[in-house]
Specification:
Strand content: 15-25%
Number of helices: 7
Strand order of the largest sheet: 1-3-2
Order of helices and strands: EHEEHEEHHEHEHEEEEH
Shape: rod-shaped
Structural class: alpha+beta
CATH class of the largest domain: Alpha Beta
CATH superfamily of the largest domain: R3H-like domain
CATH architecture of the largest domain: 2-Layer Sandwich
Largest sheet: 3 strands, antiparallel
CATH topology of the largest domain: Ribosomal Protein S8, Chain: A, domain 1
Number of domains: 3
Helix content: 25-40%
């Protein structure tokens, strides 16, 4: 994608500087094309014309993502937050935000950060009409969030095996659901699947109906005896009993998955 601007000035240098101001870049960052050379007035009174210069730069998906993010943060009165851009390869970029006000960018359980990443991805993917992965982080928030979800998934998986009951989690994006599924897979006797549509899609964790049933005298109750009542089991959807693996979550999917036009 080419970004360009037409600069006007008394000299070609002044016209170049005018065009670069419009683009928000320094003169050494742009290329120039002279449209009209400056002409002095005859006798200082007649004729003459200013110089016109076309300045242009090729905007990459990373550039577009950074510019969009800066504009959004400024609109949110969060211009003090610094933006660090790191291109990991030709098809992906990692953007880290730092500052005292990053809490406003994270939002409740990372919802604002996720939404900002999604919108930035849309902008970046329209540059070359090709898939471009954008990851926005602040400090090590996403790493901490991933660890929290892994612990939650394993905890609820053990609970499902012990009690025989299923548990429905809050709606999550595909990336976070994938983390939960992976954590549950490591617990024998438990399975997970997704239910709901669109923004209401969430993970359900329950006992694996194909897992061997426990046998024995039962568990001790509060009165010192044994509880011989049968454990309640839940029959998961048929497609989940065939293979203990996440359903429709996308292997190795990024946050919100692929962004298309």
């Amino acid at each position: 994608m080419i970004r360009e601007a037409i600069g006007v000035g008394e000299t070609e240098v002044a016209a170049q500087e005018d065009a670069c101001r419009q683009l928000g870049v320094e003169t050494y960052e742009a290329e120039f094309e002279i449209i009209q050379r400056a002409e002095k007035k005859i006798l200082g009174l007649f004729g003459g014309c200013p110089a016109k210069v076309r300045a242009f730069i090729k905007a990459t998906p990373a550039d577009a993502a950074e510019d969009f993010l800066k504009n959004v943060l400024n609109a949110m009165d969060l211009g003090s937050i610094s933006i660090e851009v790191k291109e990991t390869d030709e098809n992906s970029v990692e953007i880290n935000l730092e500052g005292e006000e990053v809490g406003s960018v994270i939002g409740r359980r990372g919802e604002t950060l996720d939404a900002l990443q999604y919108l930035t991805s849309l902008v970046a993917n329209h540059i070359d009409n090709a898939y471009y992965k954008v990851t926005i982080n602040t400090g090590d928030y996403r790493e901490k969030r991933e660890k929290t979800l892994e612990i939650l998934g394993r905890k609820l998986a053990f609970k499902a095996v012990k009690t025989g009951y299923k548990t429905s989690l809050e709606p999550m994006n595909p990336y976070e659901r994938r983390i939960i599924h992976t954590a549950v897979q490591k617990v024998n006797g438990a399975i997970s699947w997704s239910e709901g549509e669109n923004l209401n899609r969430h993970v359900v964790i329950g006992p694996d109906p194909k897992a061997p049933k426990r046998s024995g005298r039962g568990t001790r109750n509060d009165r010192g005896g044994y509880d011989r009542r049968p454990r309640r089991t839940y029959n998961a959807p048929a497609e989940d009993t065939v293979k203990r693996a996440p359903i429709n979550e996308g292997e190795g999917a990024a946050l919100y998955g692929r962004i298309d036009k």
